[in-house]
Amino acid sequence: MREFTLGLRLLFGSGRGSRIRFFLMAAGGSLGVCCLALVLTIPAILDAHDARAAAREPQTTSAAKARTGSALVLERRDPHGSKPLTRVFVARGTKATQQPPPGLDALPGPGELYLSPRLHELLRAEPALKDLLPGREKGRIGPAGLADPDELYAYVGTSRKEIAGDADTGALQSFGYPYAPTPVVEPSTLTNLRFALATLVLLPLAVFLSVCARLSAASRTRRLAALRLLGLSTKGTQRVNAAETVAAALLGALLGLGEYGILNQVMSRSGLPALRWYPADGALSWTTVAVCLLGCPALAWFVGRASARTAAANPLAVRRTAVPKPPTKWGGLLLVTGLGIVTGFCATGLTDHPATSDGLFAVLVVGGVLLTGSGLVLTLPWLSYLLARKVAGTTRSLALNLAMRRNEVEPGSTMRVVTGLVLLVYAASLAQGVLIEFEQVSKPNNPVQDYSMPLSALSDQQQRQLTEVPGVRAHARTMVSWSKPGPSGIPPQATALVATCADLTRLVRRAEGCTDGRVMRLVNPNSATDPDIHPGASFPFRLRSGRHPVSVTLTIPSARIVTRPYDPSAVGDASVIVPPSALPAHARPQSGSLILDSDSDPHVVRKVLDGIGGVAPTVSVEPVGVNVDSLSQIAVIETLLVLGMVMGLVIGVAAFLVAVSDRAVERRAQVTAITLIGARARTLRAVQAIQVALPLAIGLVLALVSGKLAESSYLVTGGGEVFWDVAGIPVLACAALGVIVVATLGTLPLVGRRVDPELIRRD
Question: For the purposes of burial, counting CB atoms within 10 Å of the CB of 311, is it exposed (0-12), middle (13-18) or buried (19 or more)?
C-alpha cells in the first residue's frame, strides 16, 4: 500500500505532463472498455430476443381432443419482402380464465386486432395489407410480446367456426416455451460468431490497452530507475509503476461503462441494419461490469509490473541509456506451433477425407487460430530487430540507416505501433471465413432462386411490375388444367409452363430441343414420367380475358424438350411448354402461378423479396427452397461481423495513433540531437516513415499468409464446399496496402519543426 500511495503522489506531483499522460491513458482505456462491454453484451441482446419469442409461443393440443370451451389458435407466417410477417388468429373459449400472451392484457375478441408498432406503421403506408389483417385495430402489442421493436407481428381475433376446420388449428393451453421456435441466430452459428468477434475485437483490444498502459514508457522507466537507485526495492519499484497504470485503467473502465450506457441508448433507438433491440436488452450485467472493472485493471497491473522490470533490475543501465537486450525468440515458437496446426488442417482439405470440427479437432482449430494470432504479435519485435540489424549493416542511405538503427535499439516499440493494424488484417480474414461458412449452410446450392405467387391474387399491372423488379432474371407463368370430377375420382391434371425458349433456358439447368412458337412436351430423364401425360392426351385449361372466361384445350404433342430442372424448382412439375403467342390475346390463366427467377446470392434474394413486397404487399410469396428466417439470420450475422470489423478498425487505428504519437514525444531528444548536427526535416520525416512502414509491411504480409491459412483451416473443418477463399485475397491485399499508405502518411506530421536544445540536456 505504501508503494501504491507513492505512485499516486508521484503521478499528481510530477507536473502537468504526467497528469496529461494519466488522463490520456484513462481516455484510451475507456474506449477499449466500451468496445469490450459491447462485445460481451451482444449475446445477452440475442438471448433477450429469443426469450421473448419463446415466452409468447402458444402451447397447444389437437383441436379435436381439446376440452369444450378451450380457446383456439392458428399461426400463419408469411414473408413480407425479406422479413417474416406473423399473424396469430385467436378464437376465445368459454372458460372463465384464459391466459393472454405477453404484451396483451387479454385475448383479442372477434373482430379485434392488435398490431406491433412497426406493423401499425406499415399498415398505414400500405393499406393493401388490410386484407391480411381483418378486424378493427384495438391496440398495440407491448414490448414484452415482441422479439424486437421492428418485428411484424399481429394478434387477430376471430370466431371459432372461422378457424376450427383448419388442420393447423390447435387448442390453447398456455403461452410460453422453454426455447424460441426460431432463434435470431442458431446456437452453433452463435458459437462461431462469438469466436469471430473475440478474434476481431478482443485480441486488438488487449494490444490497445497494453499500449495505453505504456504511454511515455521511456520517461517513466527513467523515473523508476531513479527511485530504485534511491533505495526502493525491486518489487516496490514495480508496484509504484503499477499504481499509475491501475488507477488509469480503473478510471478508464468507469468512463468506458458510462460511454457504453450512452451508446446503448443511442444504438437501441436508431438500430443497426437487420438488428434492433430494446434498451433494457443491452443493459450492463453484473458479469460484464465485473469483467471490465476487474479485468482491465488486472491487465494494467501486469503490464505495469512487466514494463518496470528493467528499471528495477538494472537501474544504472537505464539511467545511462545502455543498449537493451535483443528481444526474445520464444514468440516465434507460438507462431510456428499455431501455423503447424492450421496448416495440418489445411492439408487434410487436399485429401478425400478432410478433417471435421468434432471432438478434439474443434479445440485444436480454435487453439491453432489463437496461437497463430498471439505468436504473430510476439514475433514482430524479433523480426523487426533482425530486419533492422541486417538492413542497417548493408545500406548506404542515411535515412534508412538511422531508421533501422533506431528499430534495432527499440524493437519493442514496433509491437506497440503496428500490432493493432496487423491483427486487424489477420482477424478480417477469419471474419470472411465465418461469413462464407454460414452462407454455405443457410443458402441453397442452386445458382438460381425461384419465387412462386398465385396469379389470382395479382392484377395485370402488378404482374408487369413484378417482372421488372431489380434482380429478376427471368419470369414465366404456370397454369393447371381443370375438369369435372368423374365417378372414379379426380381426373389427371397437367401443368403447363407459359414461357419462351429463352425464359426456359434461364429457369432450368439444361434444355435441349426447344423451338420458339411451338407447344412442346417437357421431359426430365432423371424423374419418373406420369403415365397420364403422353402424346395425344388432351387437357382443358381455363383462362380469363377481361371479365369473360375462355377455355383452351391443349393436346400433348410428340415433340419434346429434354430438360434438367434445378432442385428445388418452381417449374419442375410442368409437363408442357406453351409459348405466350399460342394463347388468346389478353387472356391469362384463372389458376396458376407467376414464377420469377433471380440469382441465389442472399443479397439478391433479399432485394427481390423487398421488391415484391413493394409491388404486392399482400401476395403470398413462396421463395422455393429458401427459409426467410435464414435470410434474416444471414443479415444479422453480417451486421454483427461488420460491427466487429468497425470496432476492430477503431481499436487498431487508435492503438496506432496513440503509439506513434507517444513514440514521437519520447524521441524528441533524439530528433533534437540529430537536427542540431545538421539533419534536414525531410530526412527526419523519411526516417519516421521508414521506421513504421517496413515493420508494418512485414507484419501485414505475415498476417495475410497466416490469416488465410487460419481461415482455410476453419473452412475445411466446417464441412462446407468452399475450402479456399481465393476471392477474398485481393480485398485483403488492397486493405493491407491502404493500411501501409495511411500509416506512412500519418507519421509525417509527427516530426516537429521547432528545435528545443533543452530537450537534450542531462538530467
Answer: buried
Side-chain half-sphere of 160: how many Cα atoms within 13 Å? 12
CA distances from 374 to 368, 706, 710 (A): 10, 11, 13
The runs of H, that is alpha helices, within 560-627 are 602-615
Candidates 254, 205, 210; CA nearest to 39 is: 205
Q: What is the signed CA dihedral for 341, 345, 351, 354, rounded to 10 degrees?
A: 140
Phi, psi (degrees; rounded to nearest 5) at 41: -90, -20
pLDDT digits (tens, 9 = 90+) for 453-504: 888 878 888 888 998 888 898 899 898 887 766 555 567 788 888 888 888 8
- Residue closest to 692 by CA, chosen among 244, 361, 384: 384
Strand, helix or coil at 200? Answer: helix
State the pLDDT at residue 762. Answer: 45
Question: What CA–CA distance (Å, rounded) separates 506 from 573?
Answer: 16
Burial 100-111 (b: 16+ CB within 10 A, else e): ebbbbeebbeee
Q: Which strands form 72-80's sheet, in the order they lie side by side?
A: 58-62, 170-175, 72-80, 83-91, 152-157, 112-115, 136-140
Q: What is the pTM of this model?
A: 0.72
**Closest alpha carbon to 567 in 714, 690, 449, 451:** 449
C-alpha atoms less than 13 angstroms from C-alpha of 762 in its C-beta half-sphere = 2
* Structure confidence by residue, pLDDT tens digits, 39-90: 888 888 888 998 998 998 888 887 555 556 778 888 888 777 767 888 888 8
Do residues 429 and 732 touch, judged by C-beta distance below 8 A?
A: yes
* Enclosing H/E stretch for 332: helix 330-348
* Bridge partner residues of 564 (DSSP): 510
- 477: which strand partners? 498, 594
- Residue closest to 721 by CA, chosen among 443, 313, 387, 399: 443
The string over 387-407, giving b where at least 16 C-beta atoms fall within 10 Å of a residue's C-beta and e elsewhere, is bbbebbeeeeeebbbbbbbbb
Classify residue 171 by burial, with Cβ atoms within 10 Å: 0-12, 13-18, 19+: buried
Here the cell at position 385 is 530487430
How far is 491 from 532, CA to CA, in rounded Å?
10
